[in-house]
Amino acid sequence: MAERIMIRDLRVTCIIGINPRERVEPQDVVINIVMECDLAAACASDAIEDTVNYKTLKDELVASCSQSSYFLIERLADAVAARCLANARVRRVTVCVDKPAALTGARSVAVEVERGRD
Fold this sequence. Notes:
This protein is α+β, with helices and mostly antiparallel strands. The chain has one domain: GTP cyclohydrolase I, C-terminal domain/NADPH-dependent 7-cyano-7-deazaguanine reductase, N-terminal domain (GTP Cyclohydrolase I, domain 2). The protein is 28% helix and 36% strand. The protein is built from 3 helices and 4 strands, in the order ββαααββ. α2 packs antiparallel against α3 (73-85).
């Protein structure tokens, strides 16, 4: 049985991109995360200690992304996935990072990575 916690449309401002202007002007990115977890204990106990505290994770992600200065959204997506997997309750994670207005004529460009425990 697959049980998931999702964080949808998390907007973060950071330095991201390869062009000179992108290296100095922060931009918004939109992050979507799907974490596969065992939620049985949390369902039984109704206790935050038995699940992934998604508010704490969100705060960590906003802080780390806001301080980052990656060139590629691929690298940002990988870093977000690694931070999610740092929680032992997360077995597998899919992270999609959208960069709105990256291309003229396109709503956004997005990269999706999937990572799991070895």
